[in-house]
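Bumping with the actual sequence this time:
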Amino acid sequence: MTENKPQITIRQIIIRDYNNQIAYNEAFRYGVNIIRGKNSSGKSTISNFIFYILGGAFNNWTSEARKCKDVTAEVLINGAEFTLRREISDSVFTPLQIFWGNYEKAKTDSLNWKIFPYKSSENVLSFSNILFNALDFPEVKGDLDSNITMHQILRLLYIDQETHPQSLFRFENFDPPLTRKTISEILLGIYDDSLYSDRIKLRDKSKILELKEREYKNLINVITHSGVSANRDSIEKEIKQAKENLNKISSEIQALRDAEKIRTTKKTETNTEKIKKELIGYKNKANKITTKINQYDLEIADSKQFISTLNKRISELYNSILTRKTIGDLTLTHCPQCLEKLSTEIEDNHCKLCKQPLEEEAEKANAKRLLQEMQIQVKESSKLLEEKEKKYADFQGQLPLILEKLRYYQKELDSSILNPQSTRNEKIDNLLISKGYIESEIENLTKHLQIVELIEQLKSEVAELTKEIKELKLSISEKENDQKYKYSLVMNKIREITISILRKDLPRQDEFRTGKIVEIDFLRDSFTLEGSNNFSASSKTYFKNAVIFSIFFASLEFDFMRYPRFIICDNMEDKGMEKERTQNFQELITKMSDDYLQKEKTHQIIFTTSMVSDELNNSEYCVGDDYDTENKTLKV
């Protein structure tokens, strides 16, 4: 199976007011992080800021939040350090500033910050594109490209208070079912961008095949009703014979003119000038097109070499990152020089050999930045290459007809120069009529030959398309089977964890202790136990949290899942959850988290509560103070 294992970890959140004073500055850890305090002390405001800084669309700010200028976060994304900054605004489309490195470096380096808009365009990447790339998420193409953003991904990572407890996804006014389905497929790790691409290709190629087959049949009908053979060799023989007849008539005309008395005529002179003008025009066209063909030929070769070099560098950079990761996991126990045992008393993030501090996260961030820049270059260069190849093919198609015209007018000019002045008699007129008829016949045969060549080309294209479509269907079938297998695997684990969490609830809802069948429908945004969700408001909240946390914990079991091992919960005691029940849930989630951390399954949980468990209060899990209305989260 493919290993994705994307991960987001908040290290630090910094919020500034309009005087550039720090209104909030707290560090976060792996595992559970609890923001606790009385109601109206600003806990939800902090969770909204976290949602916002990670790319969420949010503008329903409290009065205290509106006094703040911006929010900054130092985050680890797939092990690479990033610093994100976003201004507090009433617009949900506020851009995001990104610095590849940690917060300390970002504070003193104003030049290397980059600003990315909320929405992408043809030539501009959005911040979702950048963060998707950092997470190794697939590019969601086609009709859904404008829908699947970081905001949409966060809708299944952020459990807020405003959304109804019967909905898994964070509430949206406009929420197409297909969007929810795509979000779930991405996060569950079953969305395959190559499968999606294959489906798009199959659709497009099937349409092209249909058009080519229709064009092929139409051309066959044209040839059949024209009375001309559809055989290339037969037409070429007819053209050859017609040209021989034409040369024969031209020779007879020349002989008759040589025997005539010469006299000057204005008409002949004007005709020669006209032929010269046409000839010069076609020579210029031929020269321009030939120059363009040569130019694009060189540019295409250069572009292909450039793209090939970039792809090679991207591959080398991937290998470098993988090699460093592999070697980094090897623990040296003895010095390679003297073979003495190395001391185990080494500070965290320091080399066991030279004792120097490690900057692995910074190097990963730089590698990610370089990868991203090169991938953008490859994408842009590939698009330019495609345009150049289209123009090159267009010019190549124009050249043969122009050269044929050029040869024709050159021959006419040569004939006109040999006979600049002549008197036409009846015999010559008849020969000229015959000559015109044969030239017309050659032109028609040439057109038929082009149709035959087009038929042969279409026949070849139809065969190639049929082959490609067959291969695509096989590829799609294989990938769909793999997708079904993964989906079954993940959903069974999510159901298993959900049942386990429900069983460990306090005895408040009988169905939680006896129910065995959990069904989750991301398309309809619904979830049921034994076909029902008709529970009390507090039980619905508990059930919803159990399902979403089960998706989160399942991601720690399967590396192919793209759920980024990160979750925010701002409704621990929402909808009338009693103190004992919410504290039991807090302790249950914390124990599960600790168990996974002991297995080195790194992750991050952030939740807010006004009823913190006595067992968890004032522990390493808590972030900041125990807030109240006199000591709020934001110091503004």
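The tokens above came from a reply further down the thread. The first strand starts at residue 8 and ends at 17.
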